[in-house]
Specification:
With about 190 residues, the protein is an all-alpha fold. The chain has eight helices and no strands. The chain has one domain. This is DUF2150 family protein.
C-alpha cells in the first residue's frame, strides 16, 4: 500500500512527540526517558526510509521524492519553542542527528550512492575532518556514508563507538537510525503499550 504524498510525516505527528516529551520530561540518564528521544528520532528516520523505499519502487519520481523529503525536513528541523532549556537542548541533539539523514537521502536521490569508499572509511574521514575543524567536509563524508547505508551497506556499531563525542558522532547516530529504518520501516508507536 503506497502512502499518499504529503502523508509520510505530518506536523501533528512531530508535535505529538514533542508534547509527550515535554509532558514527561526527559532525563538522559533514565533509560525510558532516553528511549523517548530515540523514538522521536527513529520515527522521523522511518518516514525518510518510507519515502526512499517508494522512490526505489518507482512509486515516486525524483522530483516528488525530493519534495516529500523537503516537507519532512521542514517539520523536523523547524525551530522549537519550549520552556525547558534542557529538554530543548536534547531535542536539538535529535535534530542535529537527523540533519545528516536528510542530506544523505537527498544526495542519494539526486546523485545515487557514493562509490569511492566504504561506510567505515567515510565515517573515519569525517572524524578526521572534524578533528581538523573542517565541519563542512565532515558533514559531507557522513552524507556519503549515509548514501551507502541507503544503498544497503552496513554501518558497524564499533565504528560509531570509536568516535569522540561531537557533531560526527551525532550525525552517525542519525545514520544508525536510518539504517534501522531502512531494514525495518515499521512505525514507532506513539503510545506505549505497557
Amino acid at each position: 500500500m503506497s502512502t499518499p504524498p504529503g502523508e509520510y510525516y505530518t506536523e501533528e505527528r512531530w508535535q505529538n512527540w514533542l508534547d509527550r516529551i515535554e509532558e514527561e520530561g526527559v532525563d538522559p540518564e533514565d533509560e525510558d526517558s532516553a528511549r523517548l528521544l530515540l523514538n522521536l528520532q527513529d520515527d522521523a528516520a522511518i518516514a525518510i526510509a518510507k519515502i526512499l523505499t517508494d522512490y526505489e519502487d518507482g512509486t515516486l519520481d525524483e522530483e516528488t521524492t525530493l519534495d516529500e523529503l523537503a516537507g519532512v525536513r521542514e517539520i523536523v528541523l523547524d525551530d522549537i519553542e519550549m520552556d525547558d532549556e534542557e529538554t530543548l537542548m536534547l531535542i536539538d541533539g535529535v535534530q542535529t542527528s537527523l540533519v545528516c539523514v536528510f542530506y544523505a537521502a537527498e544526495e542519494y536521490v539526486a546523485e545515487g550512492p557514493a562509490e569511492e569508499a566504504t561506510v567505515a572509511d567515510y565515517v573515519g574521514a569525517a572524524a578526521d575532518a572534524e578533528a581538523e575543524e573542517d565541519l563542512d567536509a565532515a558533514l559531507g563524508y557522513c552524507v556519503q556514508a549515509g548514501t551507502r547505508i541507503i544503498d544497503g551497506d552496513e554501518l558497524a556499531m564499533d565504528v560509531a563507538e570509536d568516535l569522540e563525542y561531537g557533531l560526527v558522532s551525532e550525525w552517525v547516530n542519525g545514520l544508525d537510525s536510518l539504517q534501522t529504518a531502512m531494514s525495518d520501516p515499521e512505525v514507532v508507536e506513539e503510545e506505549d503499550e505497557s
